[in-house]
């Protein structure tokens, strides 16, 4: 209660109207949620090269839930890919970068899609096809994140462990859409799919030439993916914590504790909570995060983990 009162009093003070509001929100944001960050096993911090992924014994041996993280990038995103490799990406059991052109120095996988922001939908379904063809048995969950997302993978792993990975689950930051009964999961904050979800998408959508949804690479990948999946037997989940606060944040940490309801502008599928109650202490992802801020976020997560021992 003392912490909540402190946060509220600061939010109502002149600090949030000063030029230092971002520093105050940064400190308070981390103070609020990092108490619940799970400490990962330090022996599993290696990134698996895509050529080694065929041997499933090489990934996931230290974790009860195996997660393959995949990140669509542009051909100009090498620096961002390197930062992800240095920070949250090393906590995944495997990490893949999907681009329009293979780059062995990252390494990234070349997909048959034009390198453009407008072709994110094409890069998404071709990425899922690549996973289906090469790595479907290498993980229990497949988590897609943007290259400007920071992921607390330990919290993601803990959250996913409560679901049956044999079922077709689909989880993330869920938003309403005027043409989608089940809504969709925001691509920026990232979304998780089980092996069965990937299989159903490829075998009943991709291989059927998208006869139930939109064919062609141009378009919004998150809403288009939901459009393809909503008429299948996919379980669109509620990713909020027991208090009804969001775990996947389509918002940067610097804006997190502004005293208004940010979710209202994002058409939250579930009724959102205003102000300080908006976001979970078990936060999984933040978006957008600028390049060097990935290092800042990672330092603060690591600092908290070191001080919990």
Automatic annotation (TrEMBL):
Transmembrane intervals: 20-37
Membrane listed as a keyword: yes
UniProt keyword list: Glycosyltransferase, Membrane, Nucleotide-binding, Signal-anchor, Transferase, Transmembrane, Transmembrane helix
Keyword Phosphoprotein: no
Pathway: Protein modification; protein glycosylation
EC number: 2.4.1.122
Cellular localization per UniProt: Membrane
Name of the protein in question: N-acetylgalactosaminide beta-1,3-galactosyltransferase
Organism annotation: Daphnia magna
């Amino acid at each position: 209660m003392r912490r909540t009162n402190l946060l509220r009093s600061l939010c109502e003070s002149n600090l949030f109207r000063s030029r230092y509001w971002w520093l105050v929100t940064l400190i308070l944001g981390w103070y609020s949620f990092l108490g619940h960050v799970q400490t990962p096993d330090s022996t599993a911090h290696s990134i698996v090269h895509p050529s080694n992924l065929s041997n499933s014994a090489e990934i996931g041996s230290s974790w009860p839930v195996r997660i393959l993280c995949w990140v669509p990038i542009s051909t100009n995103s090498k620096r961002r890919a390197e930062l992800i490799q240095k920070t949250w990406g090393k906590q995944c059991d495997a990490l893949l970068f999907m681009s329009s052109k293979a780059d062995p120095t990252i390494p990234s996988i070349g997909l048959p899609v034009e390198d453009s922001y407008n072709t994110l939908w094409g890069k998404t379904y071709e990425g899922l096809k690549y996973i289906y063809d090469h790595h479907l048995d290498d993980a229990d969950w497949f988590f897609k994140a943007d290259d400007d997302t920071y992921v607390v993978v330990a919290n993601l792993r803990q959250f996913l462990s409560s679901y049956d990975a044999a079922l077709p689950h689909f989880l993330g930051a869920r938003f309403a859409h005027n043409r989608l009964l089940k809504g969709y999961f925001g691509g920026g904050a990232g979304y998780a799919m089980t092996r069965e979800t990937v299989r159903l998408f490829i075998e009943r959508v991709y291989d059927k030439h998208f006869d139930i949804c939109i064919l062609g690479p141009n378009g919004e990948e998150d809403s288009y993916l939901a459009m393809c999946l909503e008429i299948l037997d996919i379980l669109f989940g509620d990713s909020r914590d027991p208090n009804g606060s969001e775990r996947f944040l389509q918002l940067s940490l610097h804006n997190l504790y502004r005293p208004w309801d940010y979710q209202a502008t994002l058409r939250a599928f579930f009724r959102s909570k205003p102000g300080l109650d908006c976001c979970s202490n078990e936060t999984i992802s933040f978006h957008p995060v600028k390049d060097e801020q990935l290092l800042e976020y990672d330092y603060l997560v690591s600092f908290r983990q070191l001080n919990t021992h």
